[in-house]
Amino acid sequence: MIYSPLLFFLALVVPLFIRSWRATAAGLLVQGLAMAAMVWGEGDLDSASPVLALVDMALLRAVLTPIALARMANAAGIDTEFDMIPANLLVWTFAVILLLAGFGFANRVTDGSAQAVLHVGTASCAVLVAMLILATQRAPFGQAVAILTLENGIALFELHSQHPTPWPLQLGLMSVFLLTVATMLLHLERLARAEHAPAPSVNLAIL
User: Fold this and answer.
1) d(Cα 58, Cα 174) in Å, to the nearest integer?
2) What whole-number distance in Å separates Cα of residue 112 and Cα of residue 109?
3) Given Cys at both, which of 10, 43, 112, 134 links 146, Cβ 3.0 to 4.6 Å?
């Protein structure tokens, strides 16, 4: 299943250079589908844990996340254009360095096989890119994108583990992800309401 990590990597990198929040949402959707394909490819769906993992990747991350991101963009008043990272050569160069560092790390901690290096390297890149977005974004919407990217990177790391996750823990991870998305959505909607609320009148009359 070398194609799934490769698809995840492309969905991570391509939106960095496209000025559109819709491209970012599509990237998160594809990342979720790629991870769902990894779970499906394992073929071990006879127990509760992999079934929950499949629901997590295919439903929560590939469907719920883009829908929530669209609502966040609407709440933040973002029409079309949105830069995940600043559109300048210096930041792009730094992003490329982080991607190379991610695969360099994977080459050191894995057995050196193409599958392992690509999987761990892509997960490392997702975490590093999320940190870069957090470091360069001041807008709450951009920070939300960074957190969602970080969540996917961590989930991709977990899929590489050879030890099955107990189903209560898997259910807890799903609950944390849902709570994270709901919290970010509510926060952005409250910020939007506060921004558009009428300013209180001030009585300057001297009594």
Assistant:
1) 12
2) 8
3) 134
pTM: 0.88
Distance CA 29, CA 137 (A): 21
Indicate the Cα dihedral angle 63, 157, 186, 169, nearest 10°: 90
**Contact assessment for residue 42 and residue 50, using Cβ atoms and an 8 Å cutoff:** yes
Of the candidates 58, 66, 61, 57, the residue with the CA atom closest to the CA atom of residue 23: 66
- Distance, in Å, from the CA atom of 63 to the CA atom of 161, rounded to the nearest integer, reads 24
Would you state the pLDDT for residue 205? 54
More confident: 131 or 42:
131
Top-confidence residue, 106 or 195: 106
Alpha helices in the chain (DSSP H): 3-13, 21-42, 48-55, 65-76, 89-109, 114-136, 140-159, 167-196
- Coil, helix or strand at residue 200: coil
116-158 pLDDT, tens digit each? 999 999 999 999 999 999 999 888 888 999 999 999 999 999 9
Paired tokens of 177 = 């992800």
